[in-house]
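Submission checklist for the structure archive. All mandatory fields must be present; incomplete records are returned to the submitter.

[x] Identifier: Alpha/beta hydrolase
[x] Organism: Flammeovirga aprica JL-4
[x] Residue count: 505
[x] Sequence attached
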Amino acid sequence: MKKINLVLLLALFSANAIGQTNTYLRLYANMGVQMNSNNVFNTNLNSNFLPFQLGAGSNYKFGGFLVGTEFYNSNGNIKNNQYKIDYKEFTSTLYVGYDLLSSSDFAIEPNIGFFMKTGQSITHELQNNNTQAYNIGQLGISTSLTLTRFNHSGLSTAIKIGCNIPLGSEQAWKNGTDDSHTNFSSNQITPFVQLNIGGRIKLKKKRHHKSDFSLSKPTLEPQSEEHKVRNQETLLYTIVYPKQNAETILLLHGGPGVPNRMKEVTNLLKQKYQVIYFDQRGTGLSNCPNGSYAMEDYISDINAIAAYYELDTFHIFGHSWGGLYAQIYADKNLSKINSLFLCSPSSGTNTTWKETEKEVMLYNKENTSNSKWLKMGVNSMFGALGSNKSYRKLFKQVLKNYHHNFQQIEISDEELAGIHAEPINKTRREIINYKPLTKIENPAYPICITYGDDDIYGKSKGEVIDRFPTAKVYDIKNCGHMPWMHNKVEFEKIVTNFYKLKKGD
């Protein structure tokens, strides 16, 4: 008992000491089985049996690291016509671990720690009614791997696989009556499998006053302002380049989940128009606490921004996924749009999105080495499981591939810091589940569609062109997916003509 109390004391001390800087407290109940190869004490019983575990645990998570404690009781028996052994055990563990994924949905956590165990076996000789008790106490190392899934409200289910390995010489059973040593040895390794059910609580930290946003804010250009626009629980980070008595152009970046302020486009447009850029929900400096990424949510975000800036109508410039986002919005809000500029837009929702993904995958494969392509596959897999870091590595390579046939660019980690797995994964599912977009025959506003002749899309881009029969369509020569960087002169001519910009504006 003294050893068990020591473990619990250490656990409580660690929780209190580290809790001041932790971000999450996780509480859970556990149940499972352990694979015992127990001593049968001179009986003819089978030594292998599966005691049932039932207990609870908790851990604090700070960054990727966690420290925790758990305990469980194990009970089981083995018997035949002559003998019966009742087994019970109490085990407490203090452990540390690391989450391999930076995700709000999943966690993969290898753990290592120390366990203390007290066990008791009671043998029954059924024919003679003889009973003998044996006790054991053990200290050892516990190793495990926990796979956890969280839902939107923080509730969790997890599978934990591990084993307990005793240390030292105290591995023999003692006589239960006088605590004397016996010649009966204990099993050396005890594997176990658990199902954990619980939840996590986000802990608030005491800190000096800082911005509401978790990332460092970008350096604002002269004559620009930043505003936080609330749409229910979501707080959208916006940058506006005000211009009195001018119409407004709303910029929609690509991804989904990959912020890009498109400064070259902004600098071109802001001379004549008021320009508004925003980080889409869950991306960059915009949060999304409820984890909802339905297309209706995206549409309501634009409406919230329009209401905040008192816009009855506005122009939309959308690039890549932002171009599809613009199409989805236009499908529902024809009367609010002054014009659409679809710059290398994604081709469509539902099955069209899947076809687009195949085209983009093929483009990336053709524009990178086999080793880098393999790394992209690994990062994509871990990103799909919820790893922010993996997606940042993936998109760093994707951007390099997009510039492969043009000038190479330097991509800093700071530029990628606004990429998060949740909006990428959840938005993708919502795009696939969204209805196919309808054809807009005679819109009351002008539409421009541009693609580079070396763009990332294939045949599917024909669906965009067919969807907007009145649009002006440009195939820009010597250009990829980023026309303002790949063929700046030709792109600026198209933008200048469409928005009726003048030199000197």
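[x] Structure attached
Curator remark: The chain has two domains: 2-202, 225-498. The CA atoms of residues 66 and 97 lie 5 Å apart.
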